[in-house]
């Protein structure tokens, strides 16, 4: 019955759309056809019966820019979208609204029904759940992430990956003159590293020997892209129909998820059966906590942490290195800071870094922060409204509506960042040479409130270690010259066609 109703709704939508398009293109026998005029509805164009759907579909290839242009043109930086079937949403880049939904009225804005879109891939992992199960996972994970031993473990893992894989790969590219896809290399790096941190498995994806097995990682990437594609594929019933019939993107998604689940479940099963050592990784922490040891629970938890650790760091660093290529002064400042910190710690220019040194790299921290402001790994996030509410900017939101808060647009609001908001300027983050944090509600790159990212400090450690190691030894020259590379609609902000670069080794 559900499929029948979905089909009827789909046909009604197609009929309405067809009539609308016919009215826009009159025939010779009917030269005075009346055109249905759009009306402006809180910033987005809205048509009778079709709401914002036509404008949404017309801008599918540039959703971030489209929403940013609309939000930044409005005094409240907030707009409302209407779709057929009473699917409505508020989109905001207003810090007061962000604080309201992520902190002040947090219980009223859970993940909601949006969870169903990602459930096939993420299941009941920490990033796709609410309520008591989320609280339990959050409590266990927060204990681990606040442990200095984990930070030291991360530094050791990153050091190994940099020295044995990333630096040799960049050196090989420099010596041979071959173009390297830096985004791809960083994603392979991130995948190896997060797998070690989460369940102490090294997939060996990054390397020069050609022995790496990328089946699991490719399936993971495909599952990420196809899952988020459900949100941009039109109305929800479209992907539901494709899923029911097991066709197209839904068939590919099911196969990708099967590969990911099998890989993770095999490792967890060995750990549960005691066929491997006890480790100090995140999986072991959850197993030893004892609250929930089912295979499905542990699998969903592992997948969520891999997703967060792999995609977010590699995305952030890809955009960072792309930005650096057009800002030589920033590169010089980073290198000057590295040289100073090295000297104060009795290190030479080519030595590896330790945790305390990384903490002293304030200018690099500021440069990464400003890059994240402009190109946040998660450019948009969404919650569902449980009960009618009035946002601080006086926008009305109804029960069952979605609310999207928009870090990408927020990084381009003059009232938050000043008239030079478009500029990549690390100095905006420094006070007397020391990095100064911004309110997470003005800068929700790592979320804010009770769900603020547990791995924020770990992410900065990884990014600073990688960036400092690469910048001190190599010059990176991206081949892309456009103002902003195209991106792929995914769970994170990934560059379309990668980040091809040429690498030149520096004389240390």
UniProtKB/TrEMBL annotation:
InterPro entries: Cyt_P450, Cyt_P450_sf
Single GO MF annotation: heme binding
Pfam families: p450
Keyword annotations of the record: Iron, Metal-binding, Oxidoreductase, Signal
Keyword Coiled coil among UniProt keywords: no
Cofactors required: heme
Signal peptide: 1-29
Listed SUPFAM superfamilies: Cytochrome P450
PANTHER family noted in UniProt: CYTOCHROME P450 (PTHR24296)
Listed name of the protein: Cytochrome P450
């Amino acid at each position: 019955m559900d499929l029948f109703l979905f089909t009827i709704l789909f046909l009604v939508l197609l009929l309405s759309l067809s009539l609308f398009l016919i009215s826009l293109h009159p025939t010779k026998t009917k030269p005075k056809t009346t055109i249905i005029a759009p009306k402006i509805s809180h910033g987005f164009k809205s048509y009778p019966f079709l709401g914002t759907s036509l404008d949404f579909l017309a801008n599918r290839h540039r959703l971030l820019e489209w929403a940013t242009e609309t939000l930044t043109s409005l005094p409240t930086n907030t707009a409302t979208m209407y779709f057929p079937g009473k699917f409505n949403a508020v989109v905001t880049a207003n810090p007061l609204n962000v604080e309201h939904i992520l902190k002040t009225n947090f219980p009223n804005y859970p993940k909601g029904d949006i969870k169903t879109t990602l459930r096939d891939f993420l299941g009941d992992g920490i990033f796709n759940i609410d309520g008591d199960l989320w609280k339990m996972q959050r409590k266990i994970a927060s204990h681990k992430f606040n442990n200095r031993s984990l930070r030291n473990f991360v530094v050791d893992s990153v050091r190994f990956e940099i020295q044995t894989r990333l630096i040799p790969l960049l050196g090989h590219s420099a010596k041979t003159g071959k173009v390297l896809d830096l985004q791809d290399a960083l994603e392979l790096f991130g995948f190896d590293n997060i797998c070690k941190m989460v369940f102490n498995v090294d997939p060996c994806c990054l390397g020069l020997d050609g022995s790496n097995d990328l089946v699991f990682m490719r399936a993971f990437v495909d599952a990420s892209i196809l899952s988020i594609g459900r949100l941009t594929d039109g109305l929800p019933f479209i992907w539901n129909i494709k899923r029911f019939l097991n066709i197209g993107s839904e068939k590919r998604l099911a196969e990708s998820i099967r590969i990911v689940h099998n890989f993770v479940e095999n490792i967890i099963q060995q750990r549960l059966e005691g066929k491997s050592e006890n480790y100090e990784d995140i999986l072991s922490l959850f197993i030893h906590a004892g609250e929930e040891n089912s295979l499905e629970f542990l699998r969903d938890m592992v997948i969520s942490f891999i997703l967060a650790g792999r995609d977010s760091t590699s995305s952030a660093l890809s955009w960072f290195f792309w930005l650096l290529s057009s800002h030589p002064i920033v590169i010089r400042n980073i290198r000057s800071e590295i040289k100073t910190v090295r000297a104060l710690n009795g290190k030479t220019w080519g030595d590896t870094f330790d945790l305390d040194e990384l903490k002293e790299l304030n200018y690099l921290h500021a440069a990464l922060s400003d890059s994240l402001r402009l190109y946040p790994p998660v450019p948009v996030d969404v919650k569902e409204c449980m009960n009618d509410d009035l946002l601080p900017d006086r926008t009305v939101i109804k029960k069952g509506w979605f609310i999207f808060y928009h870090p990408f647009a927020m990084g381009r609001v003059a009232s938050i960042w000043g008239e030079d908001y478009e500029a990549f300027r690390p100095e905006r983050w420094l006070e007397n040479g020391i990095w100064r944090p911004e309110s997470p509600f003005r800068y929700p790159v790592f979320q804010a409130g009770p769900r603020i990212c547990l791995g924020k400090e770990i992410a900065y450690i990884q990014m600073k270690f990688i960036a400092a190691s690469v910048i001190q030894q190599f010059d990176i020259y991206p081949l892309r010259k456009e103002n902003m590379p195209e991106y792929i609609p995914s769970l994170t902000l990934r560059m379309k066609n990668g980040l091809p670069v040429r690498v030149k080794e520096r004389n240390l």
